[in-house]
Amino acid sequence: MTRHTAHGIRPSDRKFPIRHSTSSRTQPQLVVSEIKLNGGEITILKTLGLSGATMAGAQLVDRMEGLEGTEFLETLAGLIALDYVVANKVNIRTMGAVKAASFRVNAAVTRDLRDAVYPSRQAKPETGRRRRRS
Question: DSSP characters for 114-125?
């Protein structure tokens, strides 16, 4: 026997109850970053800073004393090609072009880069409720 209301059958009288997804009730899982960086890339990203602020190319070159010219250019070109670093100039192949340009870390991938640059700072998964001992 079904009971009718002005809008049809009442939800409590349905033959097949609505089942809600349990996926929204699960605990968040830790997602590990897929970005793998080498030492030169980490050095450049730390020098630029992960805040997204723009740095002048001349200032970047002055701070990068540890890398030699060709290694620095290849590493910077690789970061730009992967879209981790954004530059205001398109063709950066010489140190003069680097000094004339300005650079910043792409804001879209900042969180993933931060996890890759500082792996020990990754968020730890929550353990759920703890019971008090009495």
Answer: HHHH-GGGPPPP
